[in-house]
Automatic annotation (TrEMBL):
The keyword Transmembrane helix applies. Its main location: membrane. The chain crosses the membrane at residues 62-81, 138-158, 165-185, 214-233, 254-277, 319-340, 371-388, 408-429. It comes from Oncorhynchus mykiss (Rainbow trout). It is a multi-pass membrane protein. The gene is LOC110492017. One of its GO terms (cellular component) is lysosomal membrane. One of its GO terms (molecular function) is cadmium ion transmembrane transporter activity. HAMAP family: NRAMP (MF_00221). It is found in: Late endosome membrane; Lysosome membrane. Belongs to the NRAMP family. This is Solute carrier family 11 member 2. It comes from the Eukaryota. NCBIfam families: nramp (TIGR01197), Nramp_1 (NF037982). Keywords: Ion transport, Iron, Iron transport, Lysosome, Membrane, Transmembrane, Transmembrane helix, Transport.
């Protein structure tokens, strides 16, 4: 330890100076926003569904897949941000300039499909949350119709400026952290098993069901339209692209911000996996039926009287938490799901607008854009909600996660290709 009053040696003083020059909280704050807006896609209802399924079907054994997918997602988001910073164009605009007509149209259609699928997951999540919060008084189809209001609410918020919108979504992420963190503290999962599952890339006794779930985790975490979105969001900050120093600085702070944002989203995802790994994994239908019957929680029809392994989804998962840990756990779970669904709504809205403008040079108003995608997303979801039950609604969620996995190449190939072109990225092109 240095004695008081002594001057630092020149080398040590220089290292402190270099550190201060390398990093500035004020500059980080100026660049903060796009990464957190992007990270919302890692916390949408599709992700929450994937998390709870992972915990219920494989316990803690697939946490390493979640960690790996998040790290890969961070690297891809870094490339997306770098493309936007260096070129001044987002990924869809670059695709429009670099690709011939046919592949460009195919790419656009695939990304639109991914956006609509994501929007459907948000609608499903919100509808289930409204149903749980109202103790079944708001039917699923009613919850689907209520989500139409999101269109107008978020367009209204957008008029107050991007920074205020970023702050609002920061509040929603905080709500998710608090609600799912509450469930985590309430359930008190085994920390040793959690760490083992996170850092040991092995799944003992796993079969096709767990393998399918592992693929679903990747599809839920790395969403193709989010790469297009992040490359556009970074353009909201003014950068002198003629200055290599400013470009390097912007890339650095956007990467730091994205790392912090995705670390927080990873923690929230871990909370959900751990809660269901501890509370649900290995339980049978009749066991949970008896617990719910003893505590007076409704929805006993969800659990048939047999010894088969319990199958859960967003809806049934909330009911199970209410049975085992009390009604507060059910309602807090529903609030978290609602925050997840509401926050990811605008992510899809922005993605759709940037993609349409970039690929087709069509400049629709946000109102028209949201109205179109939300109408397409709500129609099939509403039909399932009216004529089927919640099981089919959450089954649709599983299918949509698989759909997202299938759309990944339509974002990965362009972003890897363009960020590797020296003619486009100059010295910021990818290394070998």
């Amino acid at each position: 330890m240095r004695e008081k009053g002594l001057r630092l040696p020149l080398s040590e003083s220089q290292s402190y100076y270099d550190l201060l020059m390398w990093f500035s909280f004020r500059k980080l704050w100026a660049f903060t926003g796009p990464g957190f807006l992007m990270s919302i896609a890692y916390l949408d209802p599709g992700n929450i569904e994937s998390d709870l399924q992972s915990g219920a079907k494989a316990g803690f054994k697939l946490l390493w897949v979640l960690l790996g997918a998040t790290i890969i997602g961070l690297l891809l988001q870094r490339l997306a941000a770098r493309l936007g910073v260096v070129t001044g164009m987002h990924l869809a605009e670059v695709c429009n300039r670099q690709y011939p007509t046919v592949p460009r149209i195919v790419l656009w259609l695939m990304v639109e499909l991914a956006i609509i699928g994501s929007d459907m997951q948000e609608v499903i999540g919100c509808a289930i949350a409204f149903n749980l919060l109202s103790s079944g008084r708001i039917p699923l189809w009613g919850g689907v119709l209520i989500t139409i209001i999101d269109t107008f609410v978020f367009l209204f918020l957008d008029k107050y400026g991007l920074r205020k919108l970023e702050a609002f979504f920061g509040v929603l992420i905080t709500i998710m952290a608090i609600t799912f963190g509450y469930e985590y503290v309430t359930v008190r999962p085994d920390q040793g098993e959690l760490l083992k599952g996170m850092f040991m890339p092995y799944c003992e006794g796993c079969g096709p069901v767990q393998l399918e779930q592992a693929v679903g985790i990747v599809g839920a975490v790395i969403m193709p339209h989010n790469i297009y979105l992040h490359s556009a969001l970074v353009k909201s900050r003014q950068i002198d692209r003629s200055s290599k120093k400013e470009l390097k600085e912007a890339n650095k702070y956007f990467f730091i911000e994205s790392t912090i944002a995705l670390f927080l989203s990873f923690l929230i995802n871990v909370f959900v996996v751990a809660v269901f790994a501890e509370a649900v994994y290995g339980r049978t239908n009749i066991e949970v039926h008896d617990i719910c019957n003893a505590t007076g929680i409704l929805h006993l029809d969800l659990f048939p009287l047999n010894n088969e392994t319990l199958q859960v989804d967003i809806y049934k998962g909330g009911v199970v938490l209410g049975c085992i840990f009390g009604p507060a756990a059910l309602y807090i779970w529903a609030v978290g799901i609602l925050a997840a669904g509401q926050s990811s709504t605008m992510t899809g809205t922005y993605s759709g607008q940037f993609v349409m403008e970039g690929f087709l040079n069509l400049r629709w108003s946000r109102f028209s854009r949201v109205l179109l995608t939300r109408s397409i997303a709500i129609t099939p979801t509403l039909l399932v909600a009216i004529f089927q039950d919640v099981t089919h609604l959450t089954g649709m969620n599983d299918f949509l996660n698989v759909l997202q996995s299938m759309q990944l190449p339509f974002a990965l190939i362009p972003i890897l290709t363009f960020t590797s072109l020296s003619s486009l990225m100059s010295e910021f092109a990818n290394g070998l």
